[in-house]
Amino acid sequence: MRTMTWNQQVVKKNNKALVLQLIMEKEPLSRADIAQVSGLNKTTVSSLVSELLDEELIYESGPGESSGGRRPVLLHFNKDAGYAVGIDIGVNYVLCVLTDLKGNIVIEKNQMVHRTPYSAIMSIVQNMITSLIKEMPSSRYGIIGIGVGVPGMVNKEGSILLAPNLGWTNIQLKEDLENLFHVPVIIENEANAGAVGEQQFGAGLDNQNLLYVSAGIGIGVGIILNNDLYQGKNGFSGEMGHMIIELNGKSCNCGSRGCWEAYASENALLAMADPNIDSLESLMELAEKGDQQALDLFKQIGQYLGYGINNIINTFNPEQVIIGNRLAMAQKWIEEPIRTTIAQHTLAYHQKEMQLKFSKLKKYSTALGVSAFVVDYFIKEEAKTP
Amino acid sequence: MRTMTWNQQVVKKNNKALVLQLIMEKEPLSRADIAQVSGLNKTTVSSLVSELLDEELIYESGPGESSGGRRPVLLHFNKDAGYAVGIDIGVNYVLCVLTDLKGNIVIEKNQMVHRTPYSAIMSIVQNMITSLIKEMPSSRYGIIGIGVGVPGMVNKEGSILLAPNLGWTNIQLKEDLENLFHVPVIIENEANAGAVGEQQFGAGLDNQNLLYVSAGIGIGVGIILNNDLYQGKNGFSGEMGHMIIELNGKSCNCGSRGCWEAYASENALLAMADPNIDSLESLMELAEKGDQQALDLFKQIGQYLGYGINNIINTFNPEQVIIGNRLAMAQKWIEEPIRTTIAQHTLAYHQKEMQLKFSKLKKYSTALGVSAFVVDYFIKEEAKTP
DNA sequence: AAACTTTGTTTGCTAGATATACAAACCTTT
DNA sequence: AAAGGTTTGTATATCTAGCAAACAAAGTTT
Question: Which of A25, B4, B82, B271 could bridge B144 with an S-S bond, Cβ 3.0-4.6 Å?
């Protein structure tokens, strides 16, 4: 049961968070604007704003344009009050970004890796963070937290139960990083993180219900409903790569048959391609040159993606579906077949007003997503302090 | 953006609702118990309880057992403070129940129908409600609202956009009923209502994340996540009957191919059966007699249901999947193939702790679900009054 | 220059949650 | 049975935070 008790502190905390959120989203903004938009009393707004000023989460700037009376004092979000670390651990790379509180990348580190034992990846990550901290501009709050996106199943306590493509089982990355750096650490599945990233900073701005299809070596889906990431009972939601789209179809690594990712992932694409083509990149080069076989392959993959997205739309009636991860690089060739497939199969009422988009953050979706997570946590915690 | 402003009225309203909810769920209960469980101050609880007593939503009973000191005054939920009407409009029946505030059926009316033009159904519904009102016991609040479940797409404003099996398009049932009876009216999709019904009164008690698979003439799915019904952007979520489970598979009424409900619905079952079998009931009779063909058919349908449920589990990582509507009557024959199919296909981590159950409310799922909706709305509204 | 507008603060009020004290009712121990 | 301790529930006073009204400051319009 949700035993949530309400009292004045809760009210204040939430109002303060509301004011801060408004400033973040619509800066520059006057106190009067905030009062009008939020419905809060002018005095209440003034008092909350003054606390936020003390905490250096916002700052004032010179007077704005008058609208027929006294000129307003404009308020801005202090995006440099602290910095978040966002890390994307992929199968052959580690990407690490330092972002300000608005998700702008301040420093970026990228390293290719060939083998992925935990100890090796851990030491790379540790080095990256340590050097980020050295290079980081000084600020009121410093590093506010570390977020990590991994291609695997993460439970709600932050344990990585299984990351097949990294060869990891039962890894306590959260604990290890917290012991090293003594800041809040958040571990998330790569698709979930990507969904949050796109919603906060990318193609999904202002959308309450969106699905992010991470189409890479496998397929995972990040699910945002009513503005919140939906994680399922244990944190394992969105394993739609293993949705069956063909009865007794191609066999899949997971032991089942006919899974979506056996048809529509990068692995599936390469399996269908000529054996001497070894990467998505080389296939894209061929397509760029007009190679018919490559073009047909992309068309095929687009159709397969479309079938799965049909299922997503009929299930969730979302505002938006965003396609991300590596296959999104092939947008040029796969977009049209995806759209055609949806148009032919999906219920008309569901198609109406539904937006299909491609990732805007590209390779940064996941890293920026976990960074957004960290910022979110910080903002909520910070707004609490008296 | 969620521009939710908070103030003391909101606090009080929510605390009052919390207290009432506690009493509903755990009666009998003393004021001291409530204070302890909720974390609210004893005085606060006392004052809220006294308001609830004035409103006759709860009542006191003789003192309970002492636990070493003064004996507590026990509080009970007054389930007879008012009554809700729940109506299930099916393709060949109209079921209408009057329930108390705990979902117990007080009066029940059931009528077979052969043709389903709106005017005919509407007059049946009107007559049923009118006679319910006559027969209803007297109470403080009388009829607190009317809920209707329909097999079709209902938008968030309560318009029935499309109910193919009834032959309805763009029906304003909500408006019509409100004009007739002047109480709040809620219209919901049949599967959504069933999900709510099972969660509140049936097989899904205490589950925060559950999916209700309404397997009847077609297939619809009601989705409850984090204790709330998820309706999607427009209210059209859960059309998983049109999830593609076979590429280029059987053609479906919706215009697409390979839809789940083309394989696993009652219609699909009858299409596969001998042409002189005209109903699920007669097929069940055959199976009861040990007819091998009938048994095989049920096994087949069970497998098909299992494939779709596999997709549901991998997508949502739910606590529970409940199978309801007409096909649930064949539990005896379809349960085992469903379980086997899931065991063979679904990711192991997702299977763990996942409960598969069959409807407990049987034919009442939908009617009790909309009734629960009405009660919920009433409780929330009522708690507001000063 | 006078009148009006808009912005933001000061002042006093109020609702509602909380802490403290206390009374009532009960149990346990001597 | 009397004393002492517990538990339940209420009465009283206090405090927090939002709100309304008044006002000051800084504009614009006529």
Answer: B82
pLDDT at A161 over 90: yes
Residue at which a domain ends, from A77, A110, A125:
A77
The bases of strand C with some atom under 7 A from any protein CB are: 4-12, 15-21, 23-28
Give residue B327's identity as a one-letter amino acid code.
L
Are both B96 and B56 inside the same structural domain? no
Q: In total, how many domains does chain B have?
A: 3
How large is the average pLDDT for residues A105-115? 96
Average pLDDT, integer, range A303-332: 98
User: Cβ(A93)–Cβ(A363) under 8 Å?
Assistant: no
Separation in Å, CA B308 to CA A125, A238, A240, A267, B257 = 40, 15, 12, 24, 15
CB A345 within 8 Å of CB A339: no
What's the rounded Cα separation, in Å, for the pair B119 and B121?
A: 6
How far apart, in whole angstroms, are the C-alpha atoms of residue B122 and residue B89? 10
Residues comprising chain B, all counted: 386
Same domain assignment for residues B256 and B351: yes
Instruction: Work out the pLDDT band at B2, boundaries 50, 70, 90.
Output: very low
CB A280 within 8 A of CB A288: no
Domain co-membership, B92 together with B20: no
Alpha-carbon gap, residue A322 to A53, rounded angstroms:
37
**What residue spans of chain A are helical by DSSP H?**
8-26, 31-38, 42-54, 118-135, 173-181, 190-201, 261-264, 266-272, 280-288, 292-316, 331-345, 348-351, 365-384
Let me know if residue A255 belongs to a domain: yes
pLDDT of residue B3: 46
Report d(CA B6, CA A83) in Å as an integer: 30
Q: Could you check whether the bond before residue A386 is cis, i.e. omega within 30 degrees of 0?
A: no
Same domain flag for B240 and B371: no
**CA–C1' gap, B189 and C30, in angstroms:** 70
And the tokens for B107?
């009066």
Q: Are residues A240 and A352 in the same domain?
A: yes
CATH number at residue B12: 1.10.10.10
pLDDT, tens only, A122-134 = 999 999 999 999 9
Both A216 and A355 in one domain: the answer is yes
Q: Which chain B residues are Cβ-neighbours of A221 within 8 angstroms? A: 315
Mutation target vs B (from A33, A242, A250, A252; most B CBs, 10 A cutoff): A242
Cα B106 to the chain's mean position, in Å?
18
Lookup: nucleotide whose C1' is closest to B65 CA: C26
Strand B320-324, strand B210-215: pairing: parallel
A354: chain B residues, CB-CB within 8 Å: 233
Which residue from A62, A56, A51 is spatially nearest to A79, judged by alpha carbons? A56
**Does residue B375 lie within any of the structural domains?**
yes
| pLDDT (tens digit per residue) in B351-379 | 999 999 999 999 999 999 999 999 999 98
Question: Among residues of chain B, what percentage have pLDDT more than 90?
Answer: 89
Residue position matching structure tokens 């999709």: B189
Residue B102: domain span: 83-194+365-384
Q: Say whether the peptide bond before residue A28 is cis (omega within 30 degrees of 0).
A: yes
| Residue A70 placed within a domain | yes
So what's the pLDDT on residue B385? 57
Q: What's the pLDDT score for residue B11? A: 86
Contact between B6 and A3 using a beta-carbon 8 Å cutoff: no
On the question of pLDDT at B4 being above 90, the answer is no
* Start-end of H helices in chain B: 8-26, 31-38, 42-54, 118-135, 173-181, 190-201, 261-264, 266-272, 280-288, 292-316, 331-345, 348-351, 365-384
Calpha distance B347→A12 (Å, rounded):
44
CA distance A95 to A369: 13
